[in-house]
């Protein structure tokens, strides 16, 4: 498949192409580069120019660069531009301009990536759909996703995130969505904003790139919903709200969280709807109603969309559930892991604790006769001056009543540790490495265990240590 020819890429970027090459993809990482990709030598953690020779040797069709890198022949297939970041953005803009796909842009403090994946699942049932495989939602992730978009796509889903004010609007203008969806406004990156209102204004700026007659799908249950709605109306967008409150256009009326699934009854404007998602979680179920509203805004077949919602599963680190078998002979000796270690803020932490509280444990299986609900919780980052209080307040969550043991990782989580009743306190460690060393002694058959923290806390190490309890893993490691 031809995605970019040398002439097309040069015209899009205003650069100079060396060689007559054709690229079938776009990559910024030699570790995941596929044969035929255009390698983009971004300057992120390291200067991508240092990896151009390696990329070409690995089969890259060409490289987008600012200069001919050292060790690369002068006649190597290259696209030379004044600035690589600007060149990638130009490719993204050109890809969007040449494609007739209807585009959905997604943002929110919690649930961006899972909602993007729900949309991918639902839209794929009704046309060729393009979306990033990973959480590519920043200043290079959005143009990269657009630059990779096949010209014959019917739909595209673009995730847009932020850490500081002024980041979302330029990315929305680049994506030019027909539909913009905001999942929730919650305490996240508070250190860079003047409270929740500031975060809401930044999230609301996703409407800045809306195409004429565009639709804004907005959470109607928030204290800051009016900020979102006012911004959308000021842009001339059609506003559709979703949530659990009576005034929402698409409304969840009853919600049953089971051990393995969540069943929702509601109304899509004046039409009753019933759907199931194959994972427990109120946050997933409500965001799914936002997906139903998006399907309505795009004029899709609602019955097909509702059925396809049931096929979606959360990805690794985002609430994915798996069974850990501890014994090859006694097959009942299992416990369940909920891997939610990719990100955390107060809203997503509360949602994850609710899922754990609803999980079904099993008794009389292991050395501990009663199955337990156990949590490993790590620091939530970038919460500003209120970070200590927000961690301590987790002890007041209603879900905590049904959770048996909470292990805490990090200096901020020490405040939660101290706020917990003594009978619920597990261990506190400063680092995930220290916590991972002893998890084998914490868990038993019949338990359900949740792992959740901000990504920088590294609780993926705890997840890995838990997975190594799987039958056979210990022998293999030894």
From TrEMBL:
<dbReference type="Pfam" id="PF08245">
    <property type="entry name" value="Mur_ligase_M"/>
</dbReference>
<feature type="binding site">
    <location>
        <begin position="108"/>
        <end position="114"/>
    </location>
    <ligand>
        <name>ATP</name>
    </ligand>
</feature>
<keyword id="KW-0132">Cell division</keyword>
<protein>
    <recommendedName>
        <fullName>UDP-N-acetylmuramoyl-tripeptide--D-alanyl-D-alanine ligase</fullName>
        <ecNumber>6.3.2.10</ecNumber>
    </recommendedName>
</protein>
<dbReference type="InterPro" id="IPR013221">
    <property type="entry name" value="Mur_ligase_cen"/>
</dbReference>
<keyword id="KW-0067">ATP-binding</keyword>
<dbReference type="GO" id="GO:0009252">
    <property type="term" value="P:peptidoglycan biosynthetic process"/>
</dbReference>
<feature type="domain" description="Mur ligase C-terminal">
    <location>
        <begin position="328"/>
        <end position="454"/>
    </location>
</feature>
<dbReference type="InterPro" id="IPR005863">
    <property type="entry name" value="UDP-N-AcMur_synth"/>
</dbReference>
<dbReference type="InterPro" id="IPR051046">
    <property type="entry name" value="MurCDEF_CellWall_CoF430Synth"/>
</dbReference>
<dbReference type="GO" id="GO:0047480">
    <property type="term" value="F:UDP-N-acetylmuramoyl-tripeptide-D-alanyl-D-alanine ligase activity"/>
</dbReference>
<keyword id="KW-0573">Peptidoglycan synthesis</keyword>
<comment type="similarity">
    <text>Belongs to the MurCDEF family. MurF subfamily.</text>
</comment>
<dbReference type="InterPro" id="IPR035911">
    <property type="entry name" value="MurE/MurF_N"/>
</dbReference>
<dbReference type="GO" id="GO:0008360">
    <property type="term" value="P:regulation of cell shape"/>
</dbReference>
<keyword id="KW-0547">Nucleotide-binding</keyword>
<dbReference type="GO" id="GO:0008766">
    <property type="term" value="F:UDP-N-acetylmuramoylalanyl-D-glutamyl-2,6-diaminopimelate-D-alanyl-D-alanine ligase activity"/>
</dbReference>
<keyword id="KW-0131">Cell cycle</keyword>
<dbReference type="GO" id="GO:0071555">
    <property type="term" value="P:cell wall organization"/>
</dbReference>
<dbReference type="GO" id="GO:0005524">
    <property type="term" value="F:ATP binding"/>
</dbReference>
<dbReference type="InterPro" id="IPR036565">
    <property type="entry name" value="Mur-like_cat_sf"/>
</dbReference>
<keyword id="KW-0961">Cell wall biogenesis/degradation</keyword>
<comment type="function">
    <text>Involved in cell wall formation. Catalyzes the final step in the synthesis of UDP-N-acetylmuramoyl-pentapeptide, the precursor of murein.</text>
</comment>
<comment type="pathway">
    <text>Cell wall biogenesis; peptidoglycan biosynthesis.</text>
</comment>
<dbReference type="Pfam" id="PF02875">
    <property type="entry name" value="Mur_ligase_C"/>
</dbReference>
<dbReference type="InterPro" id="IPR004101">
    <property type="entry name" value="Mur_ligase_C"/>
</dbReference>
<keyword id="KW-0133">Cell shape</keyword>
<feature type="domain" description="Mur ligase central">
    <location>
        <begin position="106"/>
        <end position="295"/>
    </location>
</feature>
<dbReference type="InterPro" id="IPR036615">
    <property type="entry name" value="Mur_ligase_C_dom_sf"/>
</dbReference>
<keyword id="KW-0963">Cytoplasm</keyword>
<keyword id="KW-0436">Ligase</keyword>
<dbReference type="GO" id="GO:0051301">
    <property type="term" value="P:cell division"/>
</dbReference>
<dbReference type="GO" id="GO:0005737">
    <property type="term" value="C:cytoplasm"/>
</dbReference>
């Amino acid at each position: 498949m031809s995605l970019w020819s040398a002439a097309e890429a040069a015209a899009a970027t205003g650069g100079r192409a060396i060689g007559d090459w054709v690229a079938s993809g776009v990559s910024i990482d030699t570790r995941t580069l596929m044969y035929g990709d255009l390698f983009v030598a971004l300057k992120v953690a390291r200067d991508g120019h240092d990896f151009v020779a390696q990329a070409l040797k690995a089969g890259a069709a060409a490289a987008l660069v600012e200069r001919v890198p050292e060790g690369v022949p002068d006649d190597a297939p290259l696209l030379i531009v004044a600035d690589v970041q600007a060149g990638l953005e130009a490719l993204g803009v050109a890809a969007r301009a040449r494609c007739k796909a209807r585009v959905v842009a997604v943002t929110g403090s919690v649930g961006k990536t899972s909602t993007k994946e729900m949309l991918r699942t639902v839209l794929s049932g009704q046309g060729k759909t393009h979306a990033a495989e990973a959480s590519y939602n920043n200043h290079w992730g959005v143009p990269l996703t657009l630059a990779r978009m096949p010209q014959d796509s019917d739909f595209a889903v673009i995730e847009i995130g932020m850490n500081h004010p002024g980041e979302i609007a330029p990315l929305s203008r680049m994506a030019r969505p027909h539909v913009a969806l905001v999942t929730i406004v919650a305490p996240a990156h508070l250190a860079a904003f003047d409270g929740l209102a500031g975060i809401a204004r930044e999230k609301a700026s996703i409407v800045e790139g809306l195409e004429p007659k565009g639709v804004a799908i907005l959470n109607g249950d928030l204290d800051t919903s009016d900020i979102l709605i006012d911004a959308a109306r000021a842009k001339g967008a059609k506003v559709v709200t979703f949530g659990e409150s009576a005034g929402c256009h698409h409304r969840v009326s009853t919600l049953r969280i089971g051990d393995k699934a969540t069943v929702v009854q509601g109304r899509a404007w004046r039409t009753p709807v019933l759907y199931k998602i194959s994972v427990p979680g109120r946050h997933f179920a409500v965001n799914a109603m936002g997906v139903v509203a998006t399907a309505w805004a795009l004029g899709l077949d609602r019955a097909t969309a509702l059925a396809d919602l049931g096929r979606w599963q959360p990805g690794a680190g985002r609430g994915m559930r798996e069974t850990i078998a501890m014994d090859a002979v006694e097959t009942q000796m299992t416990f369940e892991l909920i891997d939610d270690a990719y990100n955390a803020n107060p809203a997503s932490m509360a949602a994850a604790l609710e899922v754990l509280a609803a999980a079904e444990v099993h008794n009389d299986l292991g050395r501990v006769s009663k199955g337990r609900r156990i949590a490993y919780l790590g620091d939530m980052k970038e919460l500003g001056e209120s970070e200590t209080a927000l961690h301590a307040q987790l002890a007041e969550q209603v879900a905590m009543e049904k959770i048996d043991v909470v292990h805490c990782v990090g200096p901020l989580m020490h405040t939660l540790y101290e706020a917990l009743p003594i009978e619920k306190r597990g261990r506190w460690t400063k680092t995930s490495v220290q916590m991972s060393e002893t998890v084998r002694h914490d868990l038993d058959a019949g338990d359900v265990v949740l792992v959740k923290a901000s990504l920088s806390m590294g609780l993926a190490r705890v997840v890995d240590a838990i997975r190594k309890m799987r039958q056979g893993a210990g022998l293999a490691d030894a």
